[in-house]
Amino acid sequence: MTEPNLNLAAIAFRLNGVDQQVDTPTHHTLLELLRDQLGLHSVREGCAIGMCGACTVLIEGRPFSSCLMLAAMADGKDVVTVEGLAARSADGDTAVILDPLQQAFVDHTGFQCSYCTPGIILTAKALLTEQPEATDEEIRDYLSGNLCRCGSYVKILDSIRAVVARLE
Fold it and tell me: Can you spell out the DSSP letters for 64-109?
């Protein structure tokens, strides 16, 4: 009889709408699992202390810093990265339909280097789910944990405003 590897955690969770079962080292963060094991490079490490928002993912619809969460804590949860917002076209071709927030960031150039963009889009998605008619002040407050080193805040706000206007 083989003994289980006590340094690995077997976890099952839903990632971007797809059920996953993985063995991951018990000391790995969700960020490491998503990037290193599952190849989702939109989840980025900026500060490694939960201050910059670059590693933001949605867990059960709420934004979390994946650098602060052990991967094993995702067991049984619904996790969404920015890749999970886009959809495939209904006719089965390979075309991707961007989420309105993703499209707004393209249309309004809500990014420069785009390092922070996935985390900002996911945080904004959570906000607009809670408050579809969010004001500029509410948007700024909700995004206060997401830093943009390029300073694209005006264009980021324009992008989110455009989605709010569509939802009104």
Answer: EETTSSBGGGGTT-EEE-GGGT-EE-TTSSS-EE--HHHHHHHHTT
Nearest to 122 by CA among 83, 153, 151: 83
**Amino acid identity for residue 145 in this structure:** G
What pTM was computed for the model?
A: 0.92
- CATH for 87-167 is 1.10.150.120
Looking at the chain, the number of H-run helices and the number of E-run strands are: 5, 7
Token pair recorded at residue 159 = 């992008």
pLDDT in tens, 131-158: 999 999 999 999 999 999 999 999 999 9
Asked if the 8-84 domain carries CATH number 3.10.20.30, the reply is yes
